[in-house]
Amino acid sequence: MATIFSRIVAGEIPCYKVAEDDKFFAFLDINPMVKGHTLVIPKQEVDYIFDLSDNDLAAMQVFAKKVALAIGKAFPCKKVGQAVLGLEVPHAHIHLIPMQSEADMLFSNPKLKLSPDEFTEIASKISAAM
Ligand code: AMP
């Protein structure tokens, strides 16, 4: 069965899309730690990020860099942090999180509750900065 993230890429489940190329896809995390929290995934369905081939892992990181630079423009911050957990969804993903402090990277923090309009505005701001 396809992962929830493959179903997002296929358009079967809605998302707030940020960017896409032939191999990778970026969309907002639905339970964001901060505004601008974005996930980058390979379209290829692989659970563990370190099971990607060297070439695909390197290309995913380069794609994530483009998204991270756009997040930093759209949401001024000290730096955009990157994390990989993958304990919940078995489809490799990089979390990109604009940080004002180390505390913004604590996954145990309560998550933001945003309206659909707010998610849409955040995704368009990042897309526009790409
Ligand atoms: P983890 O696998 O531990 O890195 O966590 C999975 C992340 O995916 C969590 O931050 C979730 O909020 C996020 N997530 C799960 N389902 C969706 C979805 N349908 N759209 C956007 N983000 C999601």
From TrEMBL:
GO terms for molecular function: catalytic activity. It comes from the Bacteria. Gene3D superfamilies: HIT-like. The active site is at H93 (tele-amp-histidine intermediate). Transmembrane segments: none annotated. SUPFAM superfamilies: HIT-like (SSF54197). GO terms for biological process: nucleotide metabolic process. Residues 4-107 form the HIT domain. A motif (Histidine triad motif) lies at residues 91-95. This is HIT family protein. It comes from Candidatus Enterocola intestinipullorum.
